Amino acid sequence: MTKHTRLLACALAASVLAAAAAGCGAAREIKKGTEQGFEQGKREGMIEVLAKEALAAKANAAISKDLECTVGQAAEGATATPVSCTGATDDGRPVTLKGTITESAELKKADFVRGTFTGTVAGKTVLRTSCIGPAC
Fold first, then answer.
1. Is the four-CA dihedral 99, 96, 4, 72 of positive or negative sign?
2. Domain residues for 112?
């Protein structure tokens, strides 16, 4: 079980317990928060894997360790979420990916993330794209 799956499972369990203890209005708010948290976690997990592969291919460099990505929350009524990733190539060069996610594949497919992305290796831009993943 990945760290993202564990976090999602914990968030869901906490939401169910809180909903049982709260009234219906509070339960709806908890459900909404759970859905937003799930989408944020899904996007974070997908971008960590797909961005690593895209950056390694564009830079012609091995990246064995996972990228560390942070996906922010979308503003109220918006679907775009900011993303920032860091990591390193196997030979120690810093890797970054920054951008905004506007759409991600269904969890069972997990084959694309769309938005605007800029990736760098050792400070040099190696990737500018609107879609990352094999289904682009």
1. negative
2. 3-132
